[in-house]
Amino acid sequence: MNGQTISIEALRSQQPRYAGLTAGHRACLGCGQALAARLVTEAAGPDVIVANATGCLEIFTTPWPESAWRLPWLHSLFENTGAVAAGMEAALKAQGKSTKVLAFGGDGGTFDIGFQALSGMLERGHEVLYVCYDNEAYMNTGIQRSSSTPHAAATTTSPAGRARMGKRHLKKDILAIIAAHHIPYAATASVAYPADVRKKVRRALAVPGPSFLLVHSPCPLGWGHDGALSIEVARLAVETGLFPLVEMERGSLVGVLPLRAPKPVRDYLALQGRFAHLFADDPRAREELAHLQALADANIERYGLRAGGAGLDTESADTVRRGGGQWA
Amino acid sequence: MGVKVTPGGFAAPGTAMGFRTGTWRIQRPEHVHGIAPCHHACLAGEDPQAWIASLAEGDVAGAWQRLIAANPLPASTGRVCPHPCETACNRGGYDAPLNVHGLERWLGDAALAAGWACPAPAIGRDVPAVAVVGAGPAGLSCAWQLLRRGIRPVLLEALNQAGGVPRTAIPPYRLPRAVLDGEIERLLATGIEFRPHQRLGRDFSLEELETDFAAVFLAVGTQKSRPYSVEGVVPRDLRFGLDLLRHWIAEGAVPVMDSVAIIGGGNTAVDVARILKRAGVREVHLITHERMPHAQVPDYERMRAAPDEIVQALEEGVLIHENRMVRRLILRGERVVGVEIVHARKLKEGERVRVQAFEGTESVLKVDQVIPAIGQVVNEEGLAQLLGQREFLRVEADGRVPGTSRIFAGGDCRPGLGTVAGAIFDGARAAAAIADLLGRHETRPQRGAVVGLDRLNLHYFDHAPRQEPPVLPVSERAGDREVQGGLDQQAAHAEALRCFSCGNCMACDNCFTLCPDNAVLKTRAPLTDGSHYVFDYDYCKGCGLCAHECPVGYIAMVEEE
User: What is the pLDDT of residues B70-106, one digit of tens each?
Assistant: First the structure.
């Protein structure tokens, strides 16, 4: 207002937040994972070190010889991220440093390929925050189904057609498996609720011992929706009860994001190409729609997501205020 | 891109910045300043969204400054305006519209209580003077807007006090005189030259004004009641509604009858009905061919009186006969003993609206007096050459009287008006045209499209109840006691926070927080476009996520050239 002009470079250097992941990365338009990684590093940084499994995040942030990371970052392998992070933590501890160790993986590297390394890391009690960016398939290699892919979703290896209505199997309940490790803190989060993501990252880093965060991250390419709708889709996953936002300490449920009026799963599914076959005039499609609704209802019941009467949706975690600050 | 390969085989931090992902873009986000529906609907030309934004930030003085830039009488209009802003408010499609008039009144009252002065530049005697005839809302507004532009206004008024209709014809239970006096005194204290007891056609003529002043603004109002008769029959002791109203306001008393029928559906009719009730008339009937305001009633059928006033009149025992008209006066000698009324509807045929009465629906209402409140026309005294055969002064789009070069008009003396807020707008419009005429051109902001509910992302707003001020119980409504209460400070702040900020950046950080590409940068001070954010087009891939998630519809995606 005082008539000063500032170059965009200078403005970029004066941003009121820590940028662990800079612009210039090669993620697709509207990438949920790019946003999720940005939010996690903003909340965790700057004194962190990251071990990153193979996957989209690793590929789009580090096309040799460039890097979009502004923090110490190491590409581990698909299968050993938990072990590499555990090694980092042990080394830092031996050096008497307080640097926090983060491990990043996609759902393929977490639910499937890197699972034993993760389990070992949790079991040995390494003080690492393992963040799984859950986009529900192997998106980096061409949208193959993972054990995280939801039931009835179409992928290149679980196509919808005459034989079946997308993926036959259910999404693996990773949280129950994590809970069985009896670790101090585990939670789910969604990019549609940035304040919630940040809060959970801080909580996870504040507790001694291993912690785990599952961040629901839409993939416009793999899910078949417009990049502009990434947040809308992620939000609907939560609002329908298909992706409940919960917190667990030592394996017991300590908090949920309440839903005052859960939305029908149709609202969520109809926006995505991977569920398009469920809207065909086909008795199997109707059955699968009802099945997915039942899965959502079961989640709502199991985690007690329904807020009592006058309670606000999401406890105002996502309402805006003039002047910002609500996302801090 | 000049990226160095490091000897250790690692990439230097942040080197991806050398890769401009903005080249992928086929559409770009842009800030578009939309018009809030309240702004579009405001009769006075206020931008309520703008001053409510200041209120929400806790800047009461700043909010008032923004408010009086358009309307110097907010405590008054906050009380008497029919507030179409609230009918238009997007929040009405979500839970309940914002209490805009309550906020306007609260802000106006806060300014009076704090004794804030209207900020105006000092004007030298050598500056050309403009004559403003009539010190009602239109005249006061015009004088104020001229003064703000450094033009010297001379305000001529036939009565001994400024105020116009709000002083002479709005009952004090709606507009306490202390409030009106406070706002007018504050305005006249800015250096507006006020000359009372100056009547056009008696103390000066239009020709004299044209000779002595650089321009003339006529805000003479309407002084003559429209002639009334039913099929040529006029009762001997006919009293017009507005005369009764003026009498009651000036004298505090009216002749008391047993039962009366008031004809008309405007504010005057309702005001007369309510003062007659206060004066002790047992039965007050209000007969109108229009309908009481209701969501399902189309605009052209609606009573023109403010909806709140109609509700309060009903509470006070006024009997409203909607969709009726008077077919015949029942006289005994020359005295009215009753009226024959008949069902009637306003029917729309294309653009034309006509009133149709229906045979076989007649009934008789026994009354002692018929009081027409069917409108007023301009008194031609001193204006004969401009009026011709007409009842009102015609004006062009900028307020100029056709066929003249330096004469402007506004307020009730032009056709189609009848609100204080509309008069305030007319005054401001004429002042802007006069400033242009005197060579003080100003660039007026371009108005964008009105932002509807579909442009907002409602997900980001919590439901919140509308703050309602207290209303005096019917048993305590008497004399001049103000019926409608005001909001308290806490309620006013809560109400300001309910604003959706339609089409105007509220600096909520949504775009800044949600951009996957780190391509939205935040600035410390607000930018000239009203936002706090800059799109970094070097890296924006054009996904449109920011536009979709903008709660207020401030971001639009446009095709890349």
Answer: 999 999 999 999 899 999 999 999 999 999 999 999 9
Single-letter amino acid code for the residue at B132: V
The crossing angle, in degrees rounded to 10, of helices B137-148 and B420-437 is 40
Of A139-143, A312-316, B153-157, the range with the lowest mean pLDDT is A312-316
What is the model's pLDDT at position A309?
47
Instruction: Look at residues A80, A98, A93, A166 and name the one whose alpha carbon lies nearest to residue A125.
Output: A93
Distance from C-alpha of B419 to C-alpha of A260, rounded to nearest angstrom: 44
Contact by Cβ (8 Å): A136, A150: yes
**Shared-domain flag, residues B241 and B218:** no
Q: Are strands B533-535 and B363-366 parallel, antiparallel or unpaired?
A: unpaired
If one counts the domains in chain B, the total is 4
One DSSP character per residue, B203-253 reads TB-HHHHHHHSSEEEE-----EEPP--BTTB--TT---HHHHHHHHHHHS-
Residue A225 buriedness (CB in 10 A; 0-12 / 13-18 / 19+): buried
- How many angstroms away from the CA of B441 is the closest CA of chain A? 23
Q: Based on the domain organization, do B317 and B245 belong to the same domain?
A: yes
Q: Is residue B416 part of a domain?
A: yes
Instruction: Mark yes or no for CB contact B508/A194 under 8 Å.
Output: no
What predicted TM-score, i.e. pTM, was given to this entire model? 0.88
Which one-letter DSSP state was computed for residue A158?
S
Q: Are residues B25 and B60 in the same domain?
A: no
Chain A: residue whose CA lies nearest to B496: A322
Of the pLDDT bands very low, low, confident and very high (cuts 50, 70, 90), residue A312 is very low
Give residues with Cβ within 8 angstroms of A283, minimum separation 6: none
Q: Which residue from B462, B517, B547 is facing A34, i.e. has the nearest CB?
A: B517
